[in-house]
Design brief:
- The protein has about 425 residues and is mostly beta strands.
- It has one domain (about 1-414).
- The chain contains one helix and 18 strands.
- It has one helix spanning about 400-414, and strands at about 1-10, 15-20, 30-35, 40-70, 85-90, 90-110, 115-125, 130-160, 175, 180-200, 205-215, 220-250, 265-270, 270-290, 295-300, 310-340, 360, 365-380.
- The strands form four sheets. Strands 1, 2, 6, 10, 14 and 18 form a six-stranded parallel beta sheet that branches. It has a four-stranded parallel beta sheet with strand order 3-7-11-15, with no helix packed on it. The chain has a four-stranded parallel beta sheet with strand order 4-8-12-16, with no helix packed on it.
- It is rod-shaped, with a radius of gyration of 38 Å.
Length: about 425
Amino acid sequence: MNTKKLATAIATSALLINAMAPAFAFAETTIQVTGNGSYSDNDAKVEQKSTTEVVQTNTANVTNNVSGNASTGGNDANDNTGGDVAIVTGDAKSVADVSNTLNSNSADVVNCNCEDDTKVVISGNGSESDNYVKVKNSNNTGVYQDNDAKVSNSVETKASTGYNDANRNTGGDTTIITGDAKAKASVSTVANANEASIGGGNGHDGGSLRAIISGNGSYSDNDIRIYNNNDTTLVQGNDADIYNWVEAKAKTGSNDANDNTGGDVAISTGDALAIADVDNMVNFNAADLDCGCLTDVKVKIDGNGYESDNDVKVKLNDEKGLFQDNVDYTRNEVDAKAKTGYNEIERSTGDVEHPSDPVIVTGDATTHQNVSNTGNANVIGSGLGFHIPELNVDVDFDLSLFWAWLNASSHTSN
C-alpha cells in the first residue's frame, strides 16, 4: 500500500474582533441650560466623534505536487522447464489526499459606538437671555475584508498489479493471478470566506433623543442644533484562482502468457478501480448590518414667554454601504482510468492427453469521477451563515466545520 496525504490549513487573520465602545463612550448625555438670569448669554457646544475601522486582508499562494505509485506487478516467470509456473500478486493501492483550507475573516463590531440617550434642555432662563446649544455626534464604522487565493494542485496516483510475464515455459500449468488495483485521488479546496456582523444580535435597541425648550422668559432667544451622523461601510471581496490537475490510474491487465508448452494456461486478473474526486468551495460573503442607533426622537417647544424666539434643528443621517464581490477562476482537469485488459495468451500448447483451452478471466474495471464546484455566495441579513447544498463528494470537509474551526481559533487567540 502506498498512501500519501497532504493537508494544508492556512488560517490567515482568522480574527474575531469585538470593537466595543471606546473609553470615552457615554451611556447618557444631558445638556441643560437652565435658571440663568435676564440678559445672560449662554452657549453649550458638544462634539463627539467615534471611528472604528477594521481591515482584514489575506493572501495565500499554495502549490501542491503529489505523486503516488503502488505496484505489485512487473513480475517475470519465463523459460522454465518442468513443474507448474505461477505468478500470484497481492493488491496494489495508491491513495493521494490533498486538502487546502485558507483565507478566512470574521469581524464582529458590537455596538457601532452609538450613544444611548441624548437630552438637551433649555428652560427657566430670564427675559432677553440668549441661549444656544449645539450637539454634534459622528460615528463612522468601516470594515474591509479581502481574500486572494491562488491554489495549484497537481495529483497523480497509480496502482498496478499487471505487467506480469510467464512465457516460454515447458511442462506443468502456467498461471498468472493478480490482486486488485485501486487508485484514489481526492482534492478539496476551501478558500475565501468573510463574515461580518455590525451591531447585529447584541441587544442594543438604540438611543433616544430629547430636545426641549420650555418656560423661558419673554424676548429670549433659544436655539438647539443637533447633528447625528452615522456612516457604516462594509466591503467584502474575494478572488480565487484554482487549478486542479488530477489523474488516477488502476491497472491489472497487460499480462502475457505466451509460447508455453504443456499444461493449462490461464490469466485471471483482479478488479481495477480508479476514483478521482475534486471538491472546490470558494468565495463566500455573509453580512449583517443593524446600526440604526437612534430609535426615539422627541422635540418639544412649550410655555415660553412673550415674543421669545425659539428654534430647534435636528439633522439625522444614517448611511449604510455594503459591497460584496466575488471573482472565481476554477479549472479542473480530471482523468481516471481503470484497465483489466491487454492480456495475451498466444502460441501456447496444452496437455496432449488432457487438452484444455487457454483461459483469460478479467476482473471489473470501474472509474469514478466527481467534480463539484460551489462558490460565489453572498448573504445579507440576520443570522449569517451559508446554506450550501450537501455535496456528493468523498471528502471530509464541509462549511459548518470550517466556521467551527474559525470560531475555535478566534477564542484561542482571545
